[in-house]
Design a protein that fits this description.
The protein is built from 17 helices and 24 strands. It is of the alpha/beta class and 499 residues long. The protein is globular and about 70 Å long.
Length: 499
């Protein structure tokens, strides 16, 4: 690290009274603020559970939130920022990704069981990743997961207060006032900690406030009195700043029905939907209305249907057939509507998906939608890489990334019509401008592809804005930093860390 950069004596950690209280967003803002204030920060979350993931420059997989936080800090992301990633593939099991590579599926019971050799190895791996990261950056901006007061999981905790103790982190507790019960959740969360862990809590941050902030002046005093911990900020809820989120709770806030007057784009809401951040850029396009549905009636109102990624391609494809959605998709396609598949959705558009080695689960074969003349076989090796590619129909350069565990090939005698071209090979498949599939996550971040997708439905030749998606995201990070700096006492935060 360059010697002229400022340093802090302790890492900063944000923990929560529960899930979706805003830990990831606050950590993102602080990464940006620290960078602007002359520090060299890096994000860290020991263990993340998310179906939205990202690929590092060296081809390793991490949670999307840490990739976003690294972007806010203006540094490349690395697997050390999220050494353990759990990707649920059912209600009871998850794929475990360690240091960026999958190591197998584990049941929730086995994973969280106490006093197992595997658990110690995971904790050691998380600590080693933190040590490597802290040798390069200062300060480390750490993030917890869920609630810090889950007493039944305290002994096996990797990501919350045990990690805070290991790092000797200056820890701040975030509470969501919008859901109610803020006094009980803050006081209870702190009081249920051990005395040693309680000492690490240096400040309280109240998030998602609505209304006149002066109405909470008395509340701030009460919290400080009953906990003995200063409230360093009360942050109003915001809707005009757009930061990519990975939590499934964010998905619940998406539109679920078609609209009038715009190009309607329906996204199939698979039970194991993953990487729905692929749609973020598209959702901001004023020409379209994006909605998420698993309803045939709503689906039939769409102009464009997107089959997104999924953690369980075969089971979600089977469910499409059983729910009657497969028939609806095929009818929409016969009616001239566009169908685009991304990753698992691309696999579903083929003739069949097979899993002879049970990579995903018990299902060995499921018939596809038959919209593309390709077949997919699940393989144990996971492909993870960032890619620069040429979108063949327009010859425009684009960027994206791949995360998949299947090999997709054309059926015998099928005409090969790839969608994209990289330096090494071609990728994806199309039969025409209304039937396309690709493994490229992030393809919808590219204006050239969006314009091509929408062209059949627009009377004018208006294209996407000149501002690139990267420029847009940089502007959003700055807006977020300004918002948090306005309502959080950053100087007090620095003083607490220095103390």
């Amino acid at each position: 690290m360059e010697s002229h950069l400022r340093r802090l004596p302790h890492p900063i950690m944000f923990v929560g009274t529960g899930s979706d209280v805003g830990k990831s967003i606050i950590a993102t803002a602080i990464c940006r603020i620290l960078k602007k204030d002359g520090y060299n920060p890096a994000p860290f979350k020991a263990q993340n559970m998310a179906l939205n993931s990202y690929v590092t420059p060296d081809g390793l997989e991490i949670g999307r939130a840490q990739a976003v936080q690294a972007e806010a800090a203006s540094i490349p992301c690395s697997s050390d920022m999220n050494p353990i990633l759990l990707k649920p593939n059912s209600d009871h099991t998850s794929q475990v990704v360690l240091n960026g590579k999958p190591i197998g599926n584990r049941s929730a019971y086995d994973y969280f069981r106490d006093d197992t050799k595997g658990r110690k190895e995971l904790r050691d791996a998380a600590c080693a990743a933190f040590d490597r990261l802290s040798a390069q950056f200062n300060p480390i901006v750490m993030e917890g997961a869920g609630s810090i007061s889950e007493l039944n999981l305290a002994a096996t905790d990797i990501v919350n207060m045990n990690m805070a103790q290991y790092a000797n982190a200056c820890t701040f507790l975030i509470a969501d006032i919008d859901r109610g019960g803020v006094f009980a959740s803050v006081y209870g969360s702190i009081m249920l900690l051990s005395p040693e862990q309680r000492k690490l809590i240096k400040g309280i941050l109240i998030n998602k406030f609505r209304g006149d902030l002066r109405l909470f002046d008395e509340g701030r005093k009460i919290l400080e009195q009953i906990t003995g911990v200063p409230v360093i900020g009360v942050v109003p809820v915001f809707k005009d700043i757009h930061i990519e989120e990975e939590d499934s709770v964010a998905l619940a806030q998406k539109a679920v029905t078609a609209d009038i007057g715009k190009v309607n784009i329906a996204v199939i809401r698979h039970p194991q939907l993953s990487n729905y951040t692929d749609l973020n850029r598209l959702e901001m396009d004023e020409r379209v209305h994006v909605f998420y549905t698993y309803n045939s009636d709503e689906l039939s109102k769409a102009d464009i249907i997107i089959l997104p990624g999924t953690k369980s391609t075969l089971s979600d494809l089977r469910d499409l057939h059983n729910a009657g959605l497969a028939r609806t998709i095929l009818q929409c396609h016969r009616d001239g509507k566009t169908v685009l598949g991304i990753c698992g959705g691309y696999q579903m558009m083929g003739v069949e998906v097979t899993d002879p080695d049970h990579v995903e689960g018990e299902l060995e074969r499921v018939s596809g939608l038959g919209l593309l003349p390709v077949t997919t076989e699940m393989i144990g090796e996971k492909i993870t890489r960032q890619s620069k590619f040429v979108f063949i129909p327009t010859q425009q350069p684009c960027e994206g990334y791949e995360i998949h565990m299947g090999r997709t090939t054309p059926v015998e005698n099928a005409q090969t019509t790839p969608l994209n071209r990289t330096d090494q090979c071609t990728e994806g498949y199309m039969t025409d401008n209304r039937t396309m599939g690709t493994y490229m996550h992030g393809i919808l971040d590219n204006g050239a592809f969006i314009d091509y997708l929408l062209a059949p439905y627009l009377s004018s030749n208006k294209t996407t804005e000149t501002e690139s998606y990267n420029q847009y995201k940089e502007r959003q990070y700055d807006l977020l930093a300004e918002h948090i700096r306005k309502y959080v006492d950053i100087e007090k935060l620095y003083q607490l860390i220095q103390a």
